[in-house]
Each structure stands twice: as C-alpha cells, then as structure tokens.
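User: Quick sanity check before I run a bigger batch. Here is a single chain. Can you write out its predicted 3D structure?
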Amino acid sequence: MRVVFLTHNYPRWPGDLSGAFLATLAAALVRRGIEVRVVAPSDAGQGGEEERDGVKIRRVRYASARLETIAYRGTMTSALRAPGGWRALAGLWRALGRGAREELAAGADLVHAHWWVPAGLAAPARAPLVLTVHGTDAALLRRSRLARRLARPVFARARVVTAVSRELAAWVQTSTGRHVASAHVHPMPLDSEGWPWTSAGGGTIVVARLSAQKRINLAIETTAFLASCGHDLPLTIVGDGPERARLEQQAERLGIGSFVRFTGAVAPADVIDHLARADLMLFPAQGEGFGLAAAEALMVGVPVVACWDGGGLLDVVPESGAGRLTLPSAEALSDAALDLLQDPERLALARLVGEAWRARLSPDHVAELCEGWYREALGA
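Assistant: Done. Predicted structure follows.
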C-alpha cells in the first residue's frame, strides 16, 4: 500500500517541531510495510525532494520565496489578513493538489490529508481520502461561516474522517454534518521511549503557549490563593507567547513573583525534564482540541487539574485518582490541587494512567489504527 501524506506542516529537518508527530507516524507506517510519500509546502524557497526514515518527502513551491511564509510558523490565519495572503494560500492549495495528483498517477493508493485546510481542500476530488482534523482547523469551523461552507464538500467526499479527540469530532459534526465514529477518534502518536517517571518535589507546572485561551492567569491566581492559605507551592510556567509580559506583571502584583518561574520556550526534551520534577500540573485552558501537554504530564506520572470547560482535555484528565476536573476559578482549582496533593496514592495512580497513555499513543499502535482506516477507505 502506498499512502500520500498531504499536509502544510511536516518537519523541515530532523528535530524540527513543525508537524513532528506526522514524521513519527510516517516512520511507524513504514515499519508496517506501508510506503509513505509526503507532499508538503516549500519554506521561503527551500523546496526539493529528500528521503528520511524511509519516507520520501516532496516540498512543492507555491509562491515567490518572499511569500512562502504561511506554513510551518503557525501564522496562516494572520497571513490571510495580509494583502498577498490569500494569493499565497491559493498558490499553496494548487501546488499541494498538483503534487498529490502526480503521486496518485505514479501509483499511490490513497491520500491522507492532515488538516482540512489547506490539505483537505487540495486533495484530488476522485482520490480515496482519509481526512484527519487536528484542532486549529476544527476551531476555524466554529468561528467562520465561510470556512463551514468550504469544508462541507470536503468532509462529505472523504471516505474516512478522523479526529484527535471527541471534542473535535463534535465540532466537525456540528459544523459540517459529518459524523465521526468513535472508532475514528484517536490522538496522533507520541514516542515516550526512555521517558522518566517524576521524582516530584518541584511544585506545580504549566506547559502551554502563553495565550489568553490557555488561561494561565488562573494558574497564577491559584498559586496566590494557595500562598494566602499558607501553602507556598512554587509554579513553573513552561512556554512563551503574547501574554507573557502581562502574566509576569500579574505575579508581581499578587506578591508571588518569587514563587513563579517563567522558563520561556524550551526544547521537547527539556519539557520532559521539567515534568519529571513536578508534583502537579495545572491546565486551566478553555476549549482545547486535545490537550497534549496533559497527556505528557500523565505519561511522566504527574497528576493533572483541569477545568470542566477544557474541551478535549476531558478525554485526557480523569475526574478522580490521577486528576481532577473543576470550575474555572482560583478557589476551585486550589481546592482540587490540595485534594490531589493530600492523596498519598496520587503518583502511583498517575503512573498507572500514564502507562496506559504511553501504550495508547505509541507510534506502532497509532500506525496500526491508521492502516485499518486506510483499508476501510479502500474497501479492503
């Protein structure tokens, strides 16, 4: 079987974080004897072909080098507000479609499009299509009437539609009318080989992009509330983003600047190092597509407190044992955190849940599921 990965986001070099999970999945599919060809955009004029881990990767040109900046950087939405943004996106759409058609003509059996826009839109109309929704694309469906109009024909013609969480599956069904079966809901792979289990003692941790949707302000308010009750629990905030300056000011204003540490953006291996010292993760985000950082925490044996309106987090964080779900307020989060921290079994329970997540997200397991989706799409 030969599969075309069609995507706007695939690692440009070994260690690149852009779409890294797709490279992990592609390599696992190759180990199962499936031939994978990747069609992805050029980046600032850097196109061409290469082979990595048995996967053939083709970077297609879609604009002048100066305008090839709407993929890989997480800036596609903002790029569309620029004068040349839509022109560049149209070029990307055409280039991805042309690359997919050429791969199909050369013998590929089906297309696996990652993200409905632009890859799903670009997928050749008559090709057997598996379409996976990852998060940002589903959020676009919720916000934009035009997006919903464009998306409905894509979801209608896909033979298999998958989503990385039940929350995203519900967004797809509400926005497009396409039902996503429970057998088609599964997160993308994460290679946890060699990860340690937490030794604890480092306090609470947040791992997130510092944006308003992540509600890191609630984690800081929770730390202040705990301190006011005599619980001096340090908070480590791993990540960066537009809210950082405001959050630093908030910590100082609440008088807990000495308890709160901002690390900025760090490499994935360093994220695991921070998790391996944590007692507890606070994840107060609203409307998450999945909540990968929460899964990572549990996979290192760190219990997690999240909120009931966390969206896809509800697929990850248990209500008891290794986690708590609560209202989005500092008082409620503090009560849940203390309840967890006072449970002597919390780390053992988190490790049990983490072992299950390590198995569920193992690349070989996810590749096996994908092979089943491919055979379903081909009627095999």
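Residues 85-105 form the longest helix (21 residues).

User: Great, the batch can go ahead then.
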